[in-house]
Design brief:
Blueprint lengths: L2 H51 L2 H6 L12 H8 L9 E10 L2 E9 L5 E11 L2 E9 L13
Antiparallel strand pairs: 1-2, 2-3, 3-4
């Protein structure tokens, strides 16, 4: 076997190994993305607890840094949730989570003890490895913003 043939085989082996590592890296990133769903669910559970307590202080601690840019304050969230005659907040049901990168959207229903519901969309932003609330608004059928979420 000639020396150039040995070099070609070594080069081919290196290319195959690098391609294999590349595919492994892509698969690894997909697994990490799936691991975000339980973390987002935990953030929504914390949001529910804060809403039940009606605490603007705790609510401020789970708002993203760009919430104010969206017109979101702790008081505006409480006013929105406890509107339309809702006097007691039970929680969120029928949650559908969509995310891409550091942005997420949760389409769900606000529920009351009497069984009444209201469709809402909660937008979250990941900051320093923590999912924080960006805004809550009536649910719309608009597509997710191009720079926001995907699953």
């Amino acid at each position: 076997m000639s020396e150039s043939s040995i070099r070609m085989k070594k080069l081919l082996l290196v290319v195959v190994l690098l391609a294999g590592f590349g595919f492994y890296g892509c698969e690894f990133k997909k697994n990490i993305s799936r691991e975000e769903i339980p973390i987002i669910k935990e953030s929504i559970a914390a949001f529910e607890s804060v809403l039940r307590a009606r605490s603007t202080v705790y609510l401020d601690s789970i708002l993203s840094s760009d919430a104010a840019e969206q017109g979101t304050t702790s008081q505006s969230i409480l006013d929105f949730v406890y509107s339309d005659g809702l006097t007691e907040f039970t929680g969120f049901t029928q949650k559908q989570i969509l995310f891409r990168g550091d942005d997420a959207r949760v389409d769900c229903k606000i529920t009351a003890p009497d069984g009444s519901t209201r469709d809402v969309t909660i937008t979250l932003r990941k900051e320093n490895e923590v999912w924080l609330i960006k805004k809550i608004e009536p649910h719309t059928v608009d597509a997710i913003e191009s720079d926001s979420t995907d699953s």
